[in-house]
Amino acid sequence: MIKEKIDKLLNESVKKCGFGEQTLTISFSSRPEICDFQCNGCFALAKSQGKNPFEIATLIVENIEKNDMFVFSVAKPAFINVVLTDKALANEANLYLADERGGVDKHEKSEKVLIDYGGANVAKALHVGHLRSPITGESLKRLYKFMGDEVISDVHLGDWGLQMGLTELQLFEDGKLNFYFDGKGEEPEITLDMLNEAYPKASKRKKEDEEFNKRAEEWTLKIQSKEEPYYAIYKKMREASVKQIEKHYKELGASFDYWYGESDASDYIDKAIDIITDKGLAYYSNGALVVDVAEEGENIPLPKKEGEEQRYKNPMPPALIKKQNGASLYATTDIATILMRNESDKPDRIEYIVDGRQGLHFTQVFRVCKKAGISPKEQQLIHIGFGTLNGSDGKPFKTRSGDTIKLEDIINLLIEKAGEKLKSNGVEFDRELALQIGVAAMKFGDLSNFIGKDYVFDLDKFLSFEGKTGPYLQYTAVRINSVLAKANEEGGEIKMYSDDERNIVKAIFKLQSAYESCYKEKSLNGLCIASYDLASAFSTFYNNHRILGEQNDEKRKSYISLLKLVKKELALALNVLAIDIPKKM
Question: Which CATH number fits domain 407-576: 3.30.565.10, 1.10.3720.10, 3.90.870.30, 1.10.730.10?
Answer without folding.
Answer: 1.10.730.10
